[in-house]
Structure formats: structure tokens, C-alpha cells
Design brief:
The complex is a heterodimer of chains A (about 300) and B (about 260). Chain A is an alpha+beta fold. Chain A has eleven helices and four strands, in the order ααβαβααβαβααααα. Chain B is α/β, with parallel strands linked by helices. Chain B starts with a strand and ends in a 19-residue tail after the last helix. The chains are: A alpha+beta (about 300), B alpha/beta (about 260).
Chain lengths: ~300, ~260
């Protein structure tokens, strides 16, 4: 192919979209629908993971120190706890703070109990980096001299870890299955487009067009359709994201504080969708036209 | 030049479309290929265009050995020939100018040369002023002339016309054949497959009759339309084709009678 043909071929790619506007429109509708479905499934999956992860972050544990441990000895234990790798945050919680909180919560009932003195020992409030390593971390904390016990949240830790794993796994499968379905639908749409253009391909070959010359306008056309569909799908998702999120927050309040905002997702959505659209266009166009390029003359048209 | 040597074509379903054909077509010849449906005419053309590959034998077209040609060289073989189809095969979304220009753009001709040549060729086939029309807005005869212009535009060594008058009325058919004869008189080899005996009789030239995959007749009929004499030396015989056809008889096989039909003044 000569360099002077490049401009002509690119122009042809654009012109073809208009000349075959019915098939182009059909391809865009199919591609936009598929991208919206797959994109929405991906966003739901990412948001559920974020939500679970944030619930895990809020899951605070209490390390109770031995009742008779002095305040100085209690404070010395803090750095030892922080040495453990999985500890994200460790805050001292003295017995005075504990009794004050208790008093605030119980009010009058506390007044009747005050003869019994402060029943609390010193403690630490800690947060873990990875909740799935709960058991190992608790075991290490308990080995520290002066630690009496750790609040048992193993059930919640286990459940959240399992839920997170489940959501990630199910989300990935849903996105994968929808992705495959999308590819099938898009591949069929491209096949239909190519079928309607087979006559043109046979003419191109009969006048001596090289395979590259035949292929380039089709691929450019498919990539433009893919890019346009990606941008359109991203635009629709971004536009409906906040209203859908607000509606969901009305049902589950946590969604409002623990999921991604439109500001967190718009750029990635736009780039990913347009990129995927273009790749689908390129791959679909390349594969489909190759089938016709292997054939000759009347065989292309089906005579 | 076209050279076929002991060429046979057997399709995968076992049909033997061509049987041990040997023939030479010299540059500048005007050749009619005639025969009944299924005789092997289309296969013959497909072999020349390399849409099909021969099962046995040797084929050389315009310097390309088609038994050894690499796939990526096939487009360059096709650029040495202009092909005219019975169904015109025009791109309906393109206007007439672009349909013709298309063949030049395929080979990377600069746009200013494209414009100049296309206008000239459209004038040659009598379609001046129709450049902006779409194929659907033209009559069958006009569409075939567009197809002819597209075949001519790259100045090919050979024009291959497969039933070029099959879809148009007799008057327009005559015009198309006249253009083909004129092209031939300027030195281009023209090969026409047709069923229309009247046209063969009128325009003459070298006549190859294919029957059941074999060339059963190779003869020359001189008419007023041909200035070139190259065929006279090449064909096996020269005959008065008119007599055979006007009597409703098929021309007899491998006639050796030399009866030159003089051009009618």
C-alpha cells in the first residue's frame, strides 16, 4: 500500500459509517447496551467490595490488659502491639476513660453501683490491616506479657472475609459471562455488517486491491464505532451513577458513606469504556474481514 | 499474453470443469468464448483471474505464472486486467466518478491523475455529465458502461468481460461491444464470454468454443470492427461463422475451412 493511499483510506473509514448508517447504528446500539451492562456489573462489584472493605476498617478490636497491671506497664505494651505487622492503628484506652464512658452510657444505674469501685482494667483499641488474618494477629497479641484477653470478633471477621471473597468471585464471574455474551453479540453484529458489505469486498478484490487496502477502511470504521459506543456508554453510566447511588442510599444508609462517588469513577469509566470499545472494534473488524479476504470472487458473495 | 498448457480443473465435488486445455492468446487479440451453460467458460475466466487454481497444467497471464504465484502477488496480477461482469458490480453507495476512480485509488494513483483520467474515460464510454449520479439512477446499459470505464481506467493489458451484455437490451449490447472493439483496436487484448450468437456474428474476431470442459473449436472471423490481424495467425482456422449461426446450426467442430468474411463496407 502506498503512503498516498493512507489519507484516502482513513477518509473512506469515516465515509463508510455514514454510507452504511443503518448497520452502523445497529452496531452502536448493540455495543452501547453491552458496554452499559458489563460496565454496570463491574461498578456494582467494585462498590460492594469497597463497602465490605470499609465495614472491615470500622471493625475495632479491644485488647484488655490484666486488671492489676500498673498504668506505666500498660503504656509500655502499646509499642509491642504496634510491632505486629497486621496492626494498622493502636490507641491506648485507660480504665478511667472506660469508666467515664460507662457512666455516660448508664447514667443513674451507675450511681447505685459506685461503691464497687472501677471494675475495668486498662486496654488498647486496635484496628487490623487485613481482617482475614484476625486469628493469627490475636494469637500474637495474646503472647504479649500483660495482655489478658482480646474482644472476640472472629465471627464478624470471618463473615466479612467470606463475603468479600464471595462478592469478588461472583462479581468477576458475572463480568466475565457478560463479557463473553457481549463478544458473541458484537461478533454477530460485525458478521452481519460484513455480510452486507461482501459485495463491496469482492469488487475491491477484483480490481486488484491488496488485503491491507480492503481491510483498513473496515477496521477504521469498526474502531470509530467502538470508540463512539464506549464514550456514549460511559456518558450514560456517569450520568445515571449519582441518581442510582442516591436512590440506593435511601434504602441502605451505609452506601452513602462507604461507596465510590461519581468523582472517583468518571475518568476510569470513560477511559476504560472507550478503550474497550476501540479494542472490540479493532479485533471484531480484523477477525471478521479476514474471513472474507481468504475467499475469492463469487465465493465472497456466495454464488 | 495468456498461455495455458494442458490445464485441467477438477472441483472438490469431482466435477471436471476443464479437461487438458492448451491455448495461447496473444497481446491485442479479440476473443469470444462461447459455449453452453456449464461448458466450462466461467471456470476458464476464473482461472485467468486466479479466483480458482488449476488442478493440473500451467497458466501464464501477463507474465505471472499462476501455478506458482504468491497470494500477496495476486492483486498485482489483477491490476494488469480489467474485468467487466454481467451484473456490473458497482458500489451503490458511491457515485459514478468514485466507482471508476476506485480502481485507480486501489493502486495508489495521485488524486490529480485520478480526476484527469476518470473524466477522460467516462467521456470515452459516453457518460460525460453523469459523474455525480449513483448507479441506481442509471439504466442497465449505462451501468455496464461504468463497469467498462472502471475496467479501462488503469489501462490494463487485457479486458475480461463475462457476459457483459447479459443484462441489457440488444441496442445497448451493440454499443458495449462497439466500445470493446474500439478498445481492442487500440491494442488491448479483449476476451468476451457470451451466449449471444448475433453479437459474435457481428463482431467476429477469434472464437473459442468450449464444450464439456474442452475447446472444441478455435477459429477466426474477420469483420469490419477489427483492425488487428494478430488473431489470423493464431487461430486454427478462419470460417464464415455467419452461415452456421444464421441457419440455426451450431458451428461444426474444428472446421478447417478458410472462408474469410470480408468486412461489409
Amino acid at each position: 500500500m502506498k503512503f498516498s493511499s493512507a489519507g484516502y483510506l482513513i477518509k473512506e473509514g469515516f465515509k463508510n459509517i455514514w454510507n452504511n448508517r443503518k448497520m452502523s447504528l445497529a452496531s452502536i446500539v448493540v455495543l452501547v447496551s453491552c458496554l452499559i451492562i458489563t460496565g454496570s456489573a463491574s461498578l456494582i462489584s467494585v462498590n460492594v467490595s469497597t463497602l465490605i472493605s470499609k465495614i472491615g476498617d470500622d471493625n475495632e478490636l479491644t485488647v484488655y490488659l490484666k486488671y492489676d497491671l500498673s498504668d506505666i506497664d500498660s503504656i509500655k505494651i502499646g509499642p509491642e502491639i504496634q510491632k505486629i505487622k497486621n496492626i494498622e492503628q493502636c490507641t491506648y484506652y485507660s480504665k478511667d476513660e472506660a469508666i467515664k464512658e460507662y457512666k455516660d452510657t448508664l447514667g443513674n444505674i451507675y450511681e447505685s453501683m459506685q461503691d464497687e469501685g472501677n471494675p475495668f482494667g486498662n486496654a488498647y483499641k486496635i484496628r487490623l490491616k487485613d481482617l482475614s488474618k484476625y486469628n493469627d494477629t490475636v494469637k500474637q497479641i495474646k503472647q504479649i506479657n500483660g495482655v489478658d484477653s482480646v474482644s472476640d470478633r472472629s465471627d464478624i471477621a470471618g463473615k466479612l472475609t467470606k463475603l468479600n471473597y464471595f462478592v469478588t468471585l461472583v462479581g468477576s464471574w458475572i463480568v466475565l459471562i457478560l463479557g463473553i455474551v457481549t463478544l458473541f453479540i458484537i461478533s454477530n453484529t460485525i458478521k452481519m455488517t460484513m455480510y452486507s458489505r461482501r459485495y463491496e469486498i469482492s469488487i475491491m478484490k477484483s480490481v486488484g486491491a491488496t488485503n491491507t487496502f480492503v481491510r483498513i477502511p473496515f477496521i477504521i470504521e469498526a474502531m470509530i464505532i467502538g470508540l463512539f459506543s464506549g464514550l456514549l456508554a460511559a456518558g450514560i453510566i456517569i450520568a445515571i451513577y449519582t441518581p442510582v447511588r442516591d436512590a440506593a442510599s435511601g434504602i441502605v444508609r451505609l452506601i452513602n458513606t462507604s461507596t465510590l462517588t461519581v468523582g472517583d469513577i468518571w475518568l476510569q469509566t470513560l477511559l476504560l469504556m472507550s478503550g474497550i470499545g476501540m479494542i472490540i472494534g479493532f479485533a471484531g473488524g480484523f477477525i471478521s474481514i479476514s474471513k472474507y479476504l481468504k475467499k475469492e470472487g463469487g465465493e465472497i458473495i456466495g454464488w | 499474453m495468456i498461455h495455458l498448457e494442458n490445464v485441467s480443473k477438477v472441483y472438490p465435488n469431482g466435477t471436471e470443469a476443464l479437461k487438458n486445455i492448451s491455448i495461447d492468446i496473444q497481446d491485442g487479440e479479440f476473443v469470444f468464448i462461447v459455449g453452453t451453460s456449464g461448458a466450462g467458460k466461467s471456470t476458464f475466466l476464473k482461472l485467468l483471474m486466479h479466483e480458482e487454481t488449476a488442478t493440473f497444467g500451467k497458466i501464464v497471464v501477463n507474465g505471472h505464472n499462476l501455478m506458482k504465484i504468491k497470494k500477496r502477488r495476486v492483486p498485482y496480477l489483477r491490476r494488469t486486467m480489467g474485468i467487466v461482469f454481467q451484473d456490473f458490480r458497482l458500489i451503490k453507495n458511491m457515485n459514478i466518478f468514485d466507482n471508476v476512480a476506485f480502481a485507480m485509488r486501489v493502486i495508489g494513483t495521485p488524486e490529480k491523475d485520478v480526476k484527469k483520467t476518470v473524466y477522460r474515460v467516462l467521456e470515452l464510454v459516453g457518460l460525460k455529465g453523469k459523474e455525480k449520479h449513483r448507479p441506481g439512477e442509471l439504466s442497465g446499459g449505462e451501468q455496464q458502461r461504468v463497469s467498462l470505464a472502471r475496467a479501462l481506467v488503469n489501462n490494463p493489458k487485457v479486458i475480461i468481460a463475462d457476459e457483459p451484455t447479459g443484462n441489457i437490451d440488444p441496442e445497448r449490447s451493440f454499443e458495449i461491444m462497439k466500445i470493446l472493439a474500439d478498445i481492442n483496436n487500440q491494442g488491448t487484448t479483449v476476451i468476451v464470454v457470451t451466449h449471444e450468437h448475433d453479437l459474435v456474428q457481428e463482431f467476429g474476431g477469434r472464437i473459442l468454443r468450449i464444450d464439456d470442459g474442452e475447446i472444441v473449436e478455435d477459429k477466426y472471423l474477420k469483420t469490419k470492427y477489427h483492425k488487428n490481424t494478430v488473431s489470423i495467425n493464431n487461430a486454427n482456422s478462419e470460417i464464415n461463422f455467419e452461415d452456421d449461426l444464421s441457419n440455426g446450426n451450431e458451428p461444426s467442430d474444428n472446421k478447417n475451412t478458410i472462408e474469410e468474411k470480408e468486412a461489409d463496407a
